[in-house]
Amino acid sequence: MTAQIPDYDLPETNRQVRLVARPVGTPKASDFEIVSTPVSEPGDGQLLVRNLYLSADPVQRGWAANDAVQKIGDPMRSLAVGVAVKSRVEGIADGDLVYGFFGWQDYAIARRADVLTRIGKPRVSVSSYAGALGMPGVTAWLAFNGLAPPTEGQTVLVSTAAGTVGSIVGQIAARAGARPIGLTGSDDKVAMCKKRFGYAEAFNYKTVDLDEALSSAAPDGLDTFYDNTGGAILDTAIRHMKRYGRIIACGTAATPSWSPPPTGLRNEREILLRALTWSGFVIFDHADRFEEAVERLAELSLDGELQFEEDIDEGMPAVLDALPALFSGANRGKKLVFVGKA
Amino acid sequence: MTAQIPDYDLPETNRQVRLVARPVGTPKASDFEIVSTPVSEPGDGQLLVRNLYLSADPVQRGWAANDAVQKIGDPMRSLAVGVAVKSRVEGIADGDLVYGFFGWQDYAIARRADVLTRIGKPRVSVSSYAGALGMPGVTAWLAFNGLAPPTEGQTVLVSTAAGTVGSIVGQIAARAGARPIGLTGSDDKVAMCKKRFGYAEAFNYKTVDLDEALSSAAPDGLDTFYDNTGGAILDTAIRHMKRYGRIIACGTAATPSWSPPPTGLRNEREILLRALTWSGFVIFDHADRFEEAVERLAELSLDGELQFEEDIDEGMPAVLDALPALFSGANRGKKLVFVGKA
After folding, report:
1. Which of A140, A129, A141 is closest to A54 using CA atoms?
2. What residues make up the domain containing B71?
3. Which residue of chain B comes nearest to A251, CA vs CA?
4. CB 3.0 to 4.6 Å from B81: which of B53, B279, B301, B324, for a disulfide?
5. What is the interface pTM, i.e. ipTM, of the complex?
């Protein structure tokens, strides 16, 4: 089975969305500017990628804040799905679809190490390689299965449950016979969690008393907490963990700035007395298992067993608003911007 | 090799140290009273133990605060080493030395499940079965080897490094070729850590700038933090962990009361970005491996490879001051009270 690559053009200049101010907290549109530059030629061991879908991901907030990762004046570091229009990399042919660190721009000059997935001919929709089959999906798959594999009858709490990571965690848990409980920030997302993403229960953390909701939905406690938020949600959830429970630290969406580090309830006694194991997961440490996970997720998708939502804007200027939308929760699925038509 | 059981008498009444007030924070002498009662006869499946060494341990603070564990008016729950003077338990003979949950009293009626170590004839000094070969030593052995086994060249930070748990963690680390760094609360304990317990470096956390001390003593970061304190020491140490480092939560000595839980720096981002694994360890979950660990520690001790300090008072009234001494750091080694001579 092959999916269609959408029509795209090959403009003569490269529009770049450059970071021009170090963001304070969440990046905003005015921290960026769009600049047109010439298209470069790939050198030996490089490929020229025509980006189709630019990705907006929470991790970019941390990158934008970090001078060692993101220089002011450079195109914003990002993931993207694109076509290798001119490849001088072994194993990647002209015309292959690729997913990797290609930046917010029309064209990227990339090395093999920048490519996370050599897709070749797509088997499922091209945009999904940046979402359910991209960093968020692979994060869900490798973190959950690697750190706290769900089993029959377990109760699993997931924060940002309607996001791409959380929605796939819910489905993995449900497939394993576990009972996923989702936390999200609006009533329509609560409905989507239950209807599409396999959640047995879901709550709008903005409107419920979370302590009471967990007491009621998980009276025997939580086996696993897949945590994409930290903050007050974590402080409440950790006190509902069963003994020997596991917490996966996968994101800190609840905290807009870590400089200086904010304060919160002390949690070390919970870890001790409940004999918990709390582990951090950073997907970029697991590049060697990335393509294997993409394959598994593609199979689930082809079998109709992987539900996901995408929120796709069009045109380079839309990129400026992508991160603000993400952090305000305004997006309705994996946030992407199609830039294949200049 | 057999060690001598010290002389003891068999008084006609049983002095009990009963908890008479729910302690606020650290238990103090006036929370207890000493009462004489008749000596009971063991029923079927029970044994009568003549306690010799009563133990004072940090965990008793938590027990004393918890109505489900410790009733007001009951003898204080504690560990002790004693002699089975009358056994109706299979596998335990009259005259066997035993270690277990015998309470702060002259005599205990115990079941098999209350006995952590059936010692029989002691191979090393009787008091050490309550310290280096007792709960603290076995905790150090099973937690460290189980959760983050030290290996050659690793840097391991240990808090309450001069205590019985910490002193043995230091020695296990040093024997494995790791580099243990100890934190303790006085200059003479710093000296003891380095001279006797295998520590490559040790600091008085009350007088150094801990952040600077760790930057200097572990410029490449910490592989493991064996944490007996939590609190501000933890908040500093976690920011010195290497990526993929491990934290063992084994005690929260720095925090006098958890009701309400105090606040501190948020640490979830450190766990995430450093991809740490932070695990809690409660020794009472590991009763099945207790005697095996005691055997290993006894062998080390007989080989002269296990250094430990004991701080032994005499006479039942001394028990009243044992916990205040422990939490003020006034003790100089495993805190025990010999009560074998009424």
Report:
1. A129
2. 13-131+309-338
3. B272
4. B53
5. 0.91
